[in-house]
Amino acid sequence: MRARSAAALKPVSIPAPAQGLTGIVRVLTCGSVDDGKSTLIGRLLWDASDVFDDQREALRRSDRRVLDGKHLDYSLLVDGLLAEREQGITIDIAWRTFDTADRRFVIIDSPGHEQYTRNMASGASHADVAVMLIDARAGIKRQTLRHAALLDLFGVRRVVLAVNKMDLVDWSEAAFREIEQAFEDVKRRFGFVDATVIPVAAVTGDNIARRSEQMGWYHGPTLLEHLSRIPEVATVADRPFRMPVQSILRDGQDFRGLAGTVAAGHIAVGDTIVDPVSQRDARVKRIATMDGDLGVADEGQAVVLLLDRDIDVSRGAVLSSATTPAVAATTVEANLVWLSEQAFDAKARYLLRSATDLAPVSQLSIVSLLDLGTLERQSARTCGVNDIAEVSITLGRAVALDTFVACAATGSFLIVDAVSGATVAGGTVTRATSGVSRKQEAATFNVTRTMLETGLCSDLVGRAGTEAEFQRRGAAVIALMGQAGIIANLALD
């Protein structure tokens, strides 16, 4: 089974906010299975958004009710798959959008079951803030800690712990305070910059969009009030320019443009850019778009750059600021979540997929695993599905990368099985280093003249004028081995 993308590599189309709205905030909901995520989001949509009249009427007429038989099953507004409705759980990521007076919210409802952790990881890569739900009767679970670790891994620093089902513990302040205290250790371990704990009851709507009359002891904001105060994640204008090249555009004559989306910073006509891998630079002489030329292109804009001289780059290159370029990395230290049912195999061949590049991995080593019981890292050599690991990666060739903190788009990656093409892990770069290591040199397979003469090129031996064909066949072998993730070098001397 192929895992969904866990890194922020696949853009999601979100409608622009209506006139008068200040911006977009992407809210991920996560937590253990049956903690009430879909119900909470459904209730939020019911109370705070313009749910269509026919949807409201269909829900009122539905045979499905929550266990007490009195309240509507608001999860039906979110659970879209037939399998989700039949099982009463969230399987795939559900995206819902609603507007308040001055803000557009994009709700990302992610699965809670451990089996679908990969889907939750995909949602986390797009989120600005996360709402972690827990059942007031059960408190913080192992899966809750795993989700907190994933939020930390994918850079989500604003978190709300929604202590749900307070009605089932008789609105007990003592029960809430005990959970609130236990969450302090989680906050400290993962360094969330904004972590708020709110007692709620999704079924009844208490402290969702309206203040609860049952919990007079709670004086903080409702969930909607708190989300409305979350600052919009703004573009950081002073970040160094980065643009992964998606394709090369030509018009058959003199037009050669490098197409891509500005991943960080901005670019202006006359600026100097560099390809970190080849170290070739050039000046931008034109910024073309479908709507005409621009003087300046900002983060998030899809553009075509025309340079004052040709530099030999193609899809996979990352055009960078000449003063602060990305690292032409050959060794990488990273954190990742293992997504495949197939455990890590030190003998398997893997590829690293960055923003638009796909490079062979010559060595992938597990350094440690996060122990969800102690929240400490334990030394390890292997990992399995849903494990969160610290790893060391040696690449077969240089790849333009940043640390995830510096630039999420060029600091996140997927690990792909070289044989099946399945995504097996997604992660973030903590350190990128250039230069060929001894491990890389040792891992390189040399295709020699003798090997070719006794096999593929045996018909060319002793024949005059065949050297060019000999080298062409050798280069084809190297290319095929590279596609299979084998680092090889043509050594004909």
Describe the overall structure.
The chain is an alpha+beta fold. The protein is built from 10 helices and 23 strands. The chain has helices at 37-48, 53-61, 82-87, 117-124, 142-153, 173-190, 223-229, 438-443, 449-453, 467-483; strands at 24-31, 94-99, 104-109, 129-135, 158-164, 194-199, 242-250, 256-261, 266-268, 272-275, 280-288, 296-298, 302-307, 318-321, 327-338, 350-353, 358-371, 376-379, 388-401, 412-417, 423-433, 445-448, 488-491. A hairpin with a 4-residue loop joins strand 2 and strand 3. The chain is globular and about 95 Å long.
Contiguous low-pLDDT stretches (5 residues minimum) are 1-21, 81-92
Instruction: From the 3D structure, determine the CATH topology of the largest domain.
Output: Rossmann fold
The largest β sheet comes out as: 6 strands, mixed
Structural class: alpha+beta
Produce a short descriptive summary.
The protein is of the alpha+beta class and 493 residues long.
Features:
alpha+beta, Rossmann fold, Elongation Factor Tu (Ef-tu), domain 3, six-stranded mixed β-sheet, 10 helices, 23 strands
Describe the protein's topology.
Blueprint: E1 24-31, H1 37-48, H2 53-61, H3 82-87, E2 94-99, E3 104-109, H4 117-124, E4 129-135, H5 142-153, E5 158-164, H6 173-190, E6 194-199, H7 223-229, E7 242-250, E8 256-261, E9 266-268, E10 272-275, E11 280-288, E12 296-298, E13 302-307, E14 318-321, E15 327-338, E16 350-353, E17 358-371, E18 376-379, E19 388-401, E20 412-417, E21 423-433, H8 438-443, E22 445-448, H9 449-453, H10 467-483, E23 488-491
Parallel strand pairs: 1-3, 1-4, 4-5, 5-6, 22-23
Antiparallel strand pairs: 2-3, 7-8, 7-14, 8-13, 9-12, 10-11, 10-14, 11-13, 15-19, 15-21, 16-17, 16-20, 17-18, 17-19, 20-21
